[in-house]
Design a protein that fits this description.
Layout lengths: L1 H18 L7 H12 L23 H10 L16 E7 L7 E6 L3 E5 L4 E5 L5 E9 L4 E5 L4 E5 L1
Antiparallel strand pairs: 1-2, 2-3, 4-5, 5-6, 6-7
Helix pairs in contact: 1-2
């Protein structure tokens, strides 16, 4: 019974080796594995060969860069991270009779700024670049801020 089981295992291994790709098993290693199973020794297979990628998959290829250049969007340069907007937190709102609504915002955890509608602030992003923030709309419910360099609008409530 045991010899029949070994013959079946050898047959399966030889069949699998003949169908395997060149990176999985070579025919000589399959034959060696079949012989070791037939002789009662555990079969060992070599580890698969891993080839490193030829290019960085996170960077756009030439075709995509050309399409982005035509559309006017930025790729942030090869190997450069995009500018990140700082965290903006609304700390308070003030409304006094006869005066426009004011708000107190915290930018990047570094400073508190009193703002009104139309106020422009120049602050540092997390990477040392300067960003200009402009308060577009200010109500008692929310503050809408445009990040001028990034062409983004943020609503803070």
């Amino acid at each position: 019974m045991m010899s029949l089981l070994r013959r079946i295992v050898v047959l399966v291994l030889v069949l699998a080796a003949s169908r395997a790709s060149a990176t999985d098993l070579t025919s000589s290693s399959a034959a060696a594995a079949a012989e070791s199973v037939a002789s009662g020794q555990p079969a060992t297979t070599p580890p698969p060969v891993v080839t490193p990628p030829t290019r960085d998959p996170t960077l756009p290829n030439a075709e995509l860069r050309a399409a982005l250049d035509k559309s006017g969007h930025s790729t942030a340069g090869a190997g450069h991270a995009a500018v990140k907007a700082p965290e903006i937190v609304l700390r308070g709102r003030i409304q006094m009779a006869g005066q426009p609504v004011k708000a107190l915002i915290e930018v990047g955890g570094k400073g508190l700024y009193p703002v009104t509608e139309g106020t422009r602030l120049t602050v540092e992003s997390g990477r040392g670049e300067s960003l200009t923030l402009q308060v577009v709309r200010l109500t008692l419910d929310e503050v809408e801020i445009e990040i001028v360099g990034l062409h983004q609008k943020v609503t803070v409530r």
